[in-house]
Amino acid sequence: MSTESGLIEAAFPEVEGRRDAPVQLSARRRHNGRIVFGSLALGLVAAVLLVLVPFGPPTQSAVIGSMLCGFAVGWGMLAVLTARFTDQPQRWAFVPAALMGLSGLLLVLFGPAVQPALTWILPPAMLAVSIYMMIRIRQNLSGSRARWLLYPVIVALGLASVGAGYQAIGEALDTQATPMPGQLIDVGGHRLHLYCSGSGGPTVVLEAGGGAAAAELELLRSAVERDTHVCVYDRAGRGWSDSTPTPAHGIQIATDLHTLLERAQVPRPYVLVGHSFGGLYVQMFAARYPTQVAGMVLIDSTAPDAGASAYQTHPVVLDRVFALLSSSAQLGLGHLFGGTARDLLSSINEYADAGDAVQHAASLTDFGDKPLFVLTAGIGGDAAKFAAQDRMAALSSDSVHRTVENASHQMLVSDEESAAVTACAILDVAAAVRSGQPLAK
Known about the structure:
Rossmann fold, 58% helix, single chain, alpha/beta, 8-stranded mixed β-sheet, 2 domains
């Protein structure tokens, strides 16, 4: 029998080859799952490394571009390895690799110059590629393990594309619905939004709280403009103002405001009004430019602390992490919750550098006899907070500290009744500056 089998194999060697073929085919196809997993993992690792390694500034465009380049590596490796080691080459993977790689390089190399265009081009292109990938996987890739590794990734990619498109359209519609009041002023490499109204002196300058834009102080601006000249502005990366290549810290914010007021030829003297974190910035301004400031109003201000150096800085790599985290707003989450990726990044950086602002604001140790009004929210405070507010009121020999019992921190600027109390305090300080008389106690 064995002799007969041997004669058959010798006469028809292709029969033996066909017996082994299913085993070899199965072995090669088993590589698909490993290659898919390895390629996806490689893309993720490459994206993380490119984001964290400081090849460029910690801007959203550079960080998003680095991440896309990393993902492109993973898709490219999937195409190459399946062609080399399996009988099912997935050459379609070169398409997402090319799209992500090219988009990523453009963002890294040209940054904000190309980001607005890519905001509109990339979401529909990526959605189309996601659909194309899903079709090609069903046609070209056998084996449930490999398919089910790819399906969630492609679905997530498609959802991200839809979210990014929703964000872009929402921001465009918001811009059309709310035209920018005021003007943009170049303060040296970037422009800040400034809106002034009313007439008379002194000029009241409103500084919004942490993470807030000028529009959130509209109740105060509209009330104060009836009596005197008032200006409100957006810090860098907020509202209508431009972003900066690197995060703006406390001293830079005060310097930017000074440059803005000078270049816009806003008449002096100034009555500075700061809410929450904004209270720190106006105190820094008053310390650096004392002759330009005639009065100040602190609205439930964050308290300065000269001993805050222990937490004043953070590792540089965190700036890149913050840029990455804030980019989630670009996937539709920002518009869903009433913000943009730029706003989120600016807010994250602001709170991350809280120690720096708290420490530098403590450089204002004496406000002389200039009128100072300290307003404190009665809701949500404790003994330590009220003591800190008392210390700020002690900066001037002509000061008033008033607690608004039924108001919370935010109500002092956003609730009509509470904001009216705040506006009265601002006008009291402006009147004291005009008359040269002390504040009424």
